């Protein structure tokens, strides 16, 4: 990800950002695209711990690739367009 600062505003150029993702980040992103989008379902599909999935989704959020919709208890993940 390339970040460009212009006049105090941050503009992100997100071209080819998937090249900078870990294998688990790519796997989670693909599962969310397939509408397997709750943390519990991601844990089951990947075989990883809830903590690993939480770290991964936090990383994907920080990279502006996914967004949480709804509450922590009954919400789900969506891929940003």
Which range does the strand content fall in?
Answer: 15-25%
Instruction: Give the count of helical stretches.
Output: 3
Largest sheet: 2 strands, antiparallel
What's the mean pLDDT score? 84
Give the overall shape. globular
User: Which spans of ≥5 residues are poorly predicted at pLDDT below 50?
Assistant: 9-15
Radius of gyration: 14 Å
N-C termini distance:
16 Å
**Percent range of helical residues:** 25-40%
**How many β-strands, per DSSP?**
4
CATH class: Mainly Alpha
Number of domains: 1
- Annotated CATH architecture: Orthogonal Bundle
What is the fold named in CATH at topology level? Arc Repressor Mutant, subunit A
**CATH homologous group name:** Winged helix-like DNA-binding domain superfamily/Winged helix DNA-binding domain
Helical/strand content category:
alpha+beta
Secondary-structure element pattern, one letter each: EEHHHEE
Structure described in brief:
With 81 residues, this protein is of the alpha+beta class. Helices cover 40% and strands 22% of the residues. It has one domain: Arc Repressor Mutant, subunit A (Orthogonal Bundle).
3D architecture notes:
- This protein is α+β, with helices and mostly antiparallel strands and 81 residues long.
- The protein has a single domain, classed as Arc Repressor Mutant, subunit A, CATH 1.10.10.10.
- Helices cover 40% and strands 22% of the residues.
- The chain has three helices and four strands.
- Helix 2 (39-46) packs across helix 3 (50-62).
- Mean pLDDT is 84; it is low at 9-15.
């Amino acid at each position: 990800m390339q970040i460009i600062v212009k006049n105090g505003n941050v503009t992100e150029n997100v071209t080819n950002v998937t090249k900078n993702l870990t294998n688990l980040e790519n796997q989670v992103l693909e599962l969310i695209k397939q509408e397997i989008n709750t943390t519990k379902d991601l844990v089951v599909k990947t075989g990883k711990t809830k903590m690993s999935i939480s770290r991964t989704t936090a990383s994907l959020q920080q990279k502006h690739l996914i967004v949480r919709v709804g509450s922590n208890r009954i919400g789900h993940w969506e891929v940003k367009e």
